[in-house]
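Hi L., both proteins are below.
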Amino acid sequence: MTPHPTPTAEHLVIIGNGMAGHRLLEALIKRPDRPRRITMIGEEATPAYNRILLSPWLAGEMDREALTLHDADWYADQGIELLLGERIAEIDRRQRRLVTAAGRQICYDRLVLATGSRPAMPTVEGIDLDGVHGFRDLKDVAALTRAARRGGQAVVIGGGLLGLEAAEGLRKQAKLEEAGDSDTTGRDMTISVLQRSDRLMNRQLDATAAGLLEAELTERGLAILTGARLAALEDDARGRVCAVHLEDGRRLAADCVVIAAGITPNAELGEAAGLEVKRAIVVDEFLTTSDPRIHALGECCQFNGTTYGLVEPIWRQVEVLADHLSRTAKAQAASGYVERPTATKLKISGIALYAFGPIEPDDDHEVLTYHDPQHGDYRRLLLRDNRIEGAVLYGDTAAGPWYFEQSLNGQDLCGCRQALLFGASDANRLLDSASSPTATQEAAA
């Protein structure tokens, strides 16, 4: 690996005032040897906000102000120059200069691309019609709120976490409007969710957990269609979507369509600058691109073939990059980023889910299952040689982190098998008992 030059710490420019870029700022200001001059550039006109909270905001469960991570005054107090509503049109790597769409020129000594991602839009007829939305930013939520107020028929494309959050947010917003003042309320809204796979959240849930989730969401009023492949969107002859067509010939009327079927990294700016780009901007273990003065972070980057959509690995990238940007010439090289197993902890409108490892068992897995339909609890563990390799929890997920810890440690759980599905406390007690000196002496005897 070619050694990286030590950062000059003169002028650091970060493109992208989203969650990853903002988290990097927060990490940098805690370090005494932070870059002396930092400029943050955001294409949106508002300071950074928590995109994870877009769904509860759409659902009317919180105010807009609760999403803001820090207001503009915070940046000024930290000595950070904040440029909002500015889109970078060009990176001149030779001159180390940025050019905005408005023609402003900004020089940099070191550059971080934290440009995030956008909804992956299927290449079907009608995808550009009015009434077709993503679920990614404040403008999307504002548009969906207006749609909920009008009522009608909404179709959400995508049965993963983002699609289900969008559908639940729409349902709750429509209910708020339905219960509101008669002068302002819209008509009722029916909401359908289309999932290409044979089950919801197929990357995180097995068939049983997905079935429980589908039953709960159906009871709430959502129409769930699995095995549904989008073929085209129909134009009402005025440039607005009026229906969804599926590959099997079905036609669903639609006044509003939400595309929530994955993300596409915003890598075009780096690609135009001549950086190495595959699915996203390629980086090494120090989040450095093919240009040693340019770094990429979060959903716009690719490391060892992996791209990112969950916050846990991105937060670890932030710490690595903050260390790398802050270290002095005499400091030892910072530790690089490495991939680690990640558990997925989710909550969809009050429904708790926890999963890690493989979803489908292979022939060598032992499968342990607990299911309490009355209380809506389900747990399934995949074991190999008495060690947990995968888990799916639905409902009561309290034991999830303990299972994950045992999996990371490669713990032999033979001594607590009878309690393994019934919570961490009893299983831990049995493990401690099995490993105590008394237990060891008895076993030897």
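That was the first. Here is the second:
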Amino acid sequence: FVKERTDILFANETEILSLYETESFGDALAAAQREVRVAVLTRSEKGSIVAVDGQVHEVAAVPTQVVDTTGAGDAYAAGFLAAHTRGLPPGECGRWGSVAAAEVIAHFGARPQADLKALIGQG
């Protein structure tokens, strides 16, 4: 299914390890790269990996105080896609995702409370 029907694969570390039935993040990343053009893998405080056409971009996590992780993955994907649809480079797309996720996990509830445009430097 992934190889035939997926344009952009979003997964957190636990999900990607389970999908490819491995305990090695590197092996899971390599498997994803063989199946999709764009793989976006989040790793909590370790940041994220954006792999596009064989190139791997490491994205740092945005430091924040974790209050509630509800919506973190969705916020990351939304930030990433907002940048991606603007044609920004993969690493910058990951940064937008990281900013959005960091804002959402810093309070209770899954909706951003701060101005995300200002946080990413676009406001």
